[in-house]
Amino acid sequence: MSVAGGEVVYARRAGVRLLSPTLTMPDESATSPAHMPLESGHGGSVALAASKEREAISPAASQPATITDLKMGTFIGFILCHVLAALAFIPWLFSWSGVAAFVAGLYFFGILGINIGYHRLLTHRSFRCPRWLERTLAILGTCGMQFSPAFWVAVHRCHHQHSDAEHDPHSPVRGFIWAHFGWLITRRPRHQTRAILIDRYAPDLIRDPFYGALERGSTWIVLPVLSWLALFLVGLAGALAAGHGLARAVQLGASLSVWGGPLRTVFVWHTTWAVNSVTHFWGYRNYATPDDSRNNAIVALLAGGEGWHNNHHADPRSARHGHRWWEVDPSWWTIRLLMACGLATNVVHPTAAQRP
Fold first, then answer.
1. Which of 55, 151, 317, 327 has its CA 20 to 30 A from that of 134?
2. 0.90 cut: is pTM over it?
3. Sequence-separated (6 or more) residues with CB below 8 Å from residue 141
4. What does the alpha-carbon distance between residue 177 and residue 191 come to, in Å, rounded to a whole number?
5. Which of 345, 339, 347, 289 is nearest to 318 (CA)?
6. CA 303, CA 33: separation in Å to the nearest integer?
7. pLDDT for 96-107, tens place per residue?
8. Which residues make Cβ contacts (< 8 Å) with residue 314, sequence separation at least 6?
9. What span, in angstroms and rounded, lies between the C-alpha atoms of 41 and 141?
């Protein structure tokens, strides 16, 4: 990547790919062709270009995971969260206030926290903002219960360096389930432990005392739990202030907590994971990137613009993922609003070469 005229041009030079303004990674595929727009980008099946970057999956890596490979703590936590999310289907826990908490949570914790905070800001540094806003977005992302900022960023930067190859943490070559969920609950190989990934791919974050504190001792997990508790207390206090009895107040608090907590969390989990899985299997391609990335309109609508994944892989640092006029990108719209308010600067736009 090189900066020219306020824009970032995606390129590979001298065997190095720049993943963020402060972090360089060795590029094992410096001779791969640059990403070029496809003439048939409007849809249909497009043959994937051959890529020198593609690595063969080793026989050992291809073996299915066994029960001893599971990270039991993570596995149990995910199962428990899904069970708690299912409580939303109990009629006693339904309320329109709970539905409102769910929708609001999708925006604040999904679009602001994960899409903009974790992904476009912390991972790719697609724009700059005041430190207080960066910290706020990071906290919102942490409340999404998708691990700490440093680990999330490290995994995603590693994914971009080894897209759809053996060392891609959630490579779709190992199957849909692996790309969607399996990689999260399986012990990582020695060369991709949490500490090694963070040290190699997110040193800029882990050196920051704020992000270091969230990483230390899994402190990050406290924030989403506190957000669920806060929703319960808001519902409880609001119902009591409106003159309702204790039973009704507890019911409303529980409704807000379940709909705005576990249910929203699980929904955002699966829409985020769908970017790793669905958009590497189904969709159309605007660019001949050396991977299987696709643009998927359904995922884009559900995940706030993250489903334009082929566009993103063609121009990773761009703050705008929807390149065509009809490729809706609510996350980009929010960044535009931040720009209008003077809160987002040095925003990276799609380069001329990356506009289909």
1. 327
2. no
3. 109, 112, 113, 114, 117, 118, 122, 149, 152
4. 22
5. 347
6. 30
7. 999 999 999 999
8. 10, 35, 286, 287, 289, 354
9. 32
